[in-house]
Amino acid sequence: MNEARQRHPLVPLSILRLKGPAAANTSQVIAMAGFYSTFFFITLYMQDVLGFSPMRAGSAYVPVVLMVAISAGTGTGLIPRTGTRPLMVTGALIAAGGVYWLSRLPVHGHYWTDLFPGLLIMAFGLGGVFVGVQTAANAGVPPSVAGLAGALINASTQVGAALGLAVLSAVAAARTNALLAVHAAATAGFHRALLAGAVFLVATALIALRATNTRGEPTSEISGVLTDEAPLDAAGSGRTQPGISKRRAP
Length: 250
What we know:
- This protein is mainly α.
- It is 65% helix and 0% strand.
- The protein has 7 helices and no strands.
- The radius of gyration is 21 Å and the shape is globular.
């Protein structure tokens, strides 16, 4: 509330009226709610159900990191041709498929046959989501608030991770408490939480349909949006920054 009354707020709420940052940040919150929670529950499954040591469980994610890097590199090359929206939507749906695979893990599972395929599918989709969201988050944002746009997408990552873990932990605990056998109950709880994570990623794809389909080129979308809340110039005079007009051009 205090920020809303300031002439030059730290976070001008008018930035959320830009279609690119608003849709991108919403997509990031929902995507991270499903993605980070998946890592949490898969780690518990590997250690508590399969009996992996912490070192072995951590090493199991090395292929995931490599696949995200490969997918992100591929997605970066596709953005100039397809734009960010197809990348975000397709990536979220692929990641949802991988998490759905993981939601069907058996009690006596094996890494290479039960975990590895789902983790790679999820990682391949998420590489595209990461690149698309980061690019869309800066669509139509003037240089004067580019730092703010970058900070908002990072904040959305943290909010999504915390929100998703809280919600899906409750889902898993409710399912586990309803069953009796220890390992079977834990695995069933993980199933329910991971299935909810897959739903979150599908929701990300739907939200991403509303995102600006930028190909990385500058846009004029910001004209007339960040007006009354323009940041101070280098001299601290509060003058409107270059490139931000006081009113929309006719």
